[in-house]
Specification:
alpha/beta, Rossmann fold, seven-stranded mixed beta sheet, two-stranded antiparallel ribbon, 6 helices, about 20% strand
Length: about 190
């Protein structure tokens, strides 16, 4: 399959997909994209705005995985605003723009992943572990518990087999905290073949 992996980060969701698919990864940050390329040298890595890339290229892929940024939807922000740690922000509606675009125009398989938001989702999705998914295929249930704790992750942690100590990059902790559980992502990809 031709798979488009949007907001790819360092490839947490991608880790267990193997190399039998033709994967295009889009990541905005060139330093993070370089790390992704080091982990997945066979993938076509593009440094670009994933939201715009989706609009321009959604017809070219058999499957699309999109993981738009989650900070404005996360309960961590809501709690942080109440404690004075963060400023209140409008939720980034690109999440819902992508779901609506894919739902009405994409002829291929698609999935959009984000955190469970602090508000009632504007479009109903399916909750698996700490993620909310929207898709045009049945992603099924996933029983394995994710034992990872955000507070235990630091820049020197190994998360899902990813270790960033050899890379000179800021925000290692944030990058590692944002990873999608590779086993969960592989489960979702496998459901696309049913």
């Amino acid at each position: 399959m031709r798979i488009l992996n949007l907001y790819a980060g360092i490839g947490g969701n991608r880790k267990l997909w193997g190399d039998e698919h033709k994967i295009t990864a889009v990541e905005f940050d060139p330093e993070i994209a370089a790390i992704y390329k080091e982990f997945f040298p066979n993938d076509n890595v593009i440094v670009a705005d994933a939201h715009q890339y989706l609009l321009d290229h959604y017809k070219e892929f058999d499957m699309i995985w999109s993981s738009p940024p989650c900070p404005t939807h996360s309960d961590i922000r809501r709690c942080g605003v109440h404690r004075g740690q963060y400023e209140a922000k409008f939720p980034d509606m690109k999440l819902y723009e992508e779901i609506i675009l894919l739902k009405h125009f994409s002829k291929g398989l698609w999935i959009v992943e984000n955190v469970k938001p602090y508000y009632k989702p504007l479009i109903e999705g399916k909750l698996l572990q700490r993620h909310l998914f929207w898709s045009n295929f049945d992603i099924g249930d996933y029983q394995e518990t994710d034992t990872r704790r955000h507070n235990d992750i630091n820049g020197s942690s190994t998360v899902y087999g990813f270790f960033l100590n050899g890379f000179n990059i800021k925000n290692k902790r944030k990058i590692l905290r944002n990873l999608v559980n590779p086993k969960l992502a592989n489960h979702v990809l496998n459901r696309a073949f049913l």
